[in-house]
Amino acid sequence: MARLTKMGIPLILVVWSIMACSRYFTPTKPQYTQYGISGEIPADSAYIKYYSPYQQQLEAEMNRVVGYTDVDLTKPSDAPETLLGNFFADALLAEGRKHYPNAEFSFGTKGGLRTELQQGNITVGLLFELMPFENELVVLELPGQSVQQLAQFIASTGGQPVAGIRMKTKDGKPVDIEIAGKPIDLSRTYTLVTYDYLANGGDNSRGLEKPSKRIDLGKKVREALIDYVSQQTKEGKNINTQLDGRITRNQ
């Protein structure tokens, strides 16, 4: 006689029912279809109608002119100082000082600047192309020894975008370093404006690892560039960056 559960249902029937409800599927032959994306695919009018207002709004903002550059802002790879680098570092320092007035110098890297700016109108879209990343401004208080290490990195990599600091390089080493017009003092603490990617060790930068103090400003570098160019325009100025010898090579 089958053993009964408390509810009077044969136990063997319960077990069989559970097993019967468990199904296992095993693929017998893999099949897939590859769809190529090209101009041959007909446009979906309903989808286009949905996103068109957003596209128009985006394009209007990207095409908005915020300033004008009188010169081509270029970044030759073999030059220790470049027009694009000077423009970028000047903007970093100016915008950083709005939040931290005592900031003394700024630092970026050539690799972070993704395009050059040709003479003519500067649009929001061009500045997005120049700095497409979500990097944000950071202020670092650095001991003099750390600034010396940073200068060594700048010299050994053939020069990087800087403002507020001047140096000569010889055999890949920095000499005659000046900050705010005065020779570097290794016993002092200096205030640098840069961005979080570099402050976190990006681009193999050196000298930023152990700041005495770090302040994250919560403002994207791209926004800082837009504000900087817009401010120049409000003051009736075009961008007219020049090479001024902030980094030179000793032969």
UniProtKB/TrEMBL annotation:
Q: Tell me the lineage of the source organism.
A: Bacteria, Pseudomonadati, Bacteroidota, Sphingobacteriia, Sphingobacteriales
Q: Which Gene3D superfamilies match?
A: 5'-Nucleotidase, C-terminal domain (3.90.780.10)
Q: Which InterPro entries match?
A: 5'-Nucleotdase_C, 5'-Nucleotdase_C_sf, 5_nucleotidase/apyrase
Q: Which SUPFAM superfamilies match?
A: 5'-nucleotidase (syn. UDP-sugar hydrolase), C-terminal domain
Which parts of the chain are coiled coil? none
The record ties this protein, via PROSITE patterns, to:
PROKAR_LIPOPROTEIN (PS51257)
List residues of the 5'-Nucleotidase C-terminal domain.
65-205
UniProt-recorded Gene Ontology molecular function terms: hydrolase activity
> Which GO CC terms are listed, alphabetically?
outer membrane-bounded periplasmic space
Q: Per the UniProt entry, what is one GO biological process?
A: nucleotide catabolic process
What are the TM regions of this chain, as residue ranges? none
State what protein this is by name. Answer: 5'-nucleotidase, C-terminal domain
Pfam families cross-referenced by the UniProt entry: 5_nucleotid_C (PF02872)
